[in-house]
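request received
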Amino acid sequence: MAVTSTKPYVGVPRDVVANFNGKQIVYVNWEQHLLFATPFMLVVEPGMRFGDLLANVVKPLMQADPDAGAVDLTKLEWRKGKSAWQPDFAATLAENGIVHKEQLHFTTPGLNTLLAAA
Amino acid sequence: MDMKTAKKKLGLKEKYRLLTRDLGWEPSYQPKDAIYPYTQYEGIKIHDWDKWEDPFRLTMDSYWKYQAEKERKFYAIIDAHAQNNGHLHITDARYLSALKIFLQAISPGEYAAGKGFARMGREFPGVGTQVACQMQAIDEIRHAQTQIHALSNYNKFYNGFHGFADARDRMWYCSLPRSFFDDAMSAGPFEFMIAIGFSFEYVLTNLLFVPFMSGAAYNGDMATVTFGFSAQSDEARHMTLGLECIKFMLEQDPANLPIVQNWIDKWFWRGFRLLGVVGTMMDYMLPKRVMSWREAFEIYGIENGGALFKDLARYGIRPPKGWDDAGKALDHMSHQFMLALYQYNFGTTFHSWIPSEDDMAWLSKKYPTTFDKYYRPRWEHLKKLKEAGTPFHNMGLAKLCQTCQIPTVFTEPDDPTRLTQREVDYQGEKYHFCSEGCQHIFENEPEKYVEAWLPMPQLFQEPINGDLAAWMEWVSLVPGKDNGDFDGSEDQKNFDAWRDLAKSNQ
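response:
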């Protein structure tokens, strides 16, 4: 639906990938681990190997959660956006089809110390 | 020599008419549409502006008389407050976080509302409406200024107040209120009236005003209480203006109904999101609490709002679309938001902290179905990390909602174990939302929201390029003073030291 306006109005998105100096945004969410207030917002190069993203960027950010030590990030169920997805850990983000502002999710069923009461 | 006149003194009704309604005239030199170019494009049809009922019928002489009385009183009290080291009478320096948030996030909104109502006073053809809007514009500027005056004494002694204008413009959590008002101000005049005049100043106003002013009273903050009294009669006029607006629009033409309903849906949701900050303040930041957010919303939202929408049902209005989702969020949102503020507190110009055992006992009592189950385990874990010397700072930064610009901390209405994550692809770009409500607002007018200035992604663009230290300087955050845990802060140390000084002779 168009903006209610007196003449045609075209918005210019501020967060296009070109504005990020060769990097892109990827959001990563550890499902049901709500110690982390929101999914992590990562700003990384599309040429980064997905395995490196996990080991060097995601893993350190997860450490505050008591379950972090028990998680092997390469043995999980993943979703990309709304669909189930099998990552290629050796391939880059771009090769994995992870576009700018993509939302990734992984789940660790049965492992949830802080939500044990739930 | 007595001069006898035939005419008696003017009655109130006649005086009002001569000094307001009769000031306008029907244009004949230019077409009316050229003078008032924004009254058609929203689709709202007005047939008779004279049907506008201004319930207060204020003329300038009464207005200035009332306002001047309030101003004299107000400034006398805040002078006394300053002279008597009134700041030492607050319950505890944690209370200051509520004031810092108010100054950074709410006071700027008052000024924006002022600009908005000035614009309405210009854009509406009806004289009665013009006068009412112009007066509200002056009220709102006065509110912004009196708030700043009221809080200025705290700035002498405590951190986090000094950079409030930079925080307003640049701080991540301030884009919530700023985008709210920008959205309203860039809307048409009729939408602005429903957004601010009705949804904010009528439906939701008590949820902002009462918590902050009662919170001030309960926590020994005479300066803010005094502001509250000074603004109260203005707010009564604003509420009446808001209610008159919606009734006027609905009575002028049945075609206005679906447009107005759509705006009510949108602005209830945006307002509910904005007020999430208030809930957090009530439940966590007031050392002496007034009531819980849930209790406040039950009275001022559900009861009062319920009665209002029952009354408006005769026009065909139904309660806002997000009403049920709002109800489901009540027992969760304040905790979710405080947990977020705590873990990102390296980047806030106010302190947050881990609630004490007593605090948690109160939260447990007020939120019996949710606090112990979902939120206490997180707070206790954060406490453990802090005691181990590794307090949790979430460097994974926050994903923000494209519409309301809040970090997407909220959970599914029917599943508090899962974050709500909505996503829309629009013209080759992805956009993320915290809720159905925000997604719908985007989908209704995407061009308006695609250009949102979202603080977190902006942090990684020119000129800051992800440099956190540079960002702190840019937002006027002094690290080690303005940010971080209340525990161990200068504010805590100073308040305790000065209060001791006031009570002992050492």
